[in-house]
Design goal:
Layout lengths: L2 H7 L13 H12 L12 H10 L5 H14 L3 H5 L3 H8 L6 H17 L7 H5 L6 H12 L8 H11 L8 H13 L7 H18 L17 H5 L16 E11 L2 E6 L10 E2 L2 E2 L2 H10 L2 E7 L3 E4 L4 E11 L13 E5 L10 H9 L6
Parallel strand pairs: 1-7
Antiparallel strand pairs: 1-2, 1-4, 2-3, 2-8, 5-7, 6-7
Helix pairs in contact: 1-11, 2-12, 3-4, 3-9, 9-12, 10-12
Amino acid sequence: MSTSAIASASDSSTATIPALSDFSVRLIAWQREHGRHDLPWQNTRDPYRIWLSEIMLQQTQVSTVIPYYARFLARFPDVAALACAPADDVMTLWAGLGYYTRARNLHRCAQAVVEQHGGQFPESVEALAELPGIGRSTAAAIASFAFGARATILDGNVKRVLARVFGVEGFPGEKKVENGMWLLAESLLPVNATDDDVSAYTQGLMDLGATLCVRGKPDCARCPFAVDCVAKVTGRQRELPAARPKKTVPTRRIWMLLLRDRDTVMLEKRPPSGIWGGLWSLPEAADEAALAQLARDFGASADVSPLAPLTHVFTHFRLDIEPRLAELDGTSNASNARDADTVWMSLNELDAYGVPAPVRKLLEGLQGSLI
């Protein structure tokens, strides 16, 4: 590994940073003996399955992804099946996994692979990175696992490993620090490696960050780099990598209308972009009075009942939800409030609709103790 790569990755003195010329060799050996080998998307060179898992695993834990991955494969066994599926079907299966832009890009990417590449994923990192929803690190992971490409990844787990082992200062999300980490990561790639070696190296980086070099309490005693790790040697495991600079998280407040007609509830489809884009949700209003008027417009009776409030935390803001229950007044016809973006859903059909997690919680409450 070059000294210039280390220097670029850290503003600290390089005198205390280990050279670790055998980094890749040690990591590959560790992965083969101690890494994960039986995840559902491993032991395959199928780029479709690898791509699907990589998109789902973005900012999401393995244990959460596994059941979604299985359901997606059962419903969409190959990229052609996903490409021709209705968007509603894709969003319904994705509901609850969060970060819904991933689902929309997943669908667009499948269509691009079919329409632009004859149903075959391109093999180069550069071509993969041009597809919707695939960034530089994800493209490298797909190319490495599917095609044995010698390409580096740099997701959150890898940044944490590099920051600790090599003592990289600064918040990894800052562009200057991240650029230095890319140089460092590229300098560590195995040389003259077989396809299997490259895959083991890439998987090893992921495994080390996910199983040992974790955020809270790293298991340094089992780490193959413990004797060389700057964070371990200097007792700075909790300091490295540097935390995101603190800033106030804004709070938004909305009112949601649960409009019920006997055993059905009205849902509206959200716009394709933005928060919960493309999902089915409840009608919203900016305040209590606007929500009461909205209920009347839909033909609800005068009584609007408050339900227990909910709070949902997004990456960049906190959403306080004030749910209100209203019933059609008996003279209104539910079909009057129906169009292409509106549906009256029976509560026992909830699984057939893609709804955001907090909305699902509210709807499930209608069958429980909320009322």
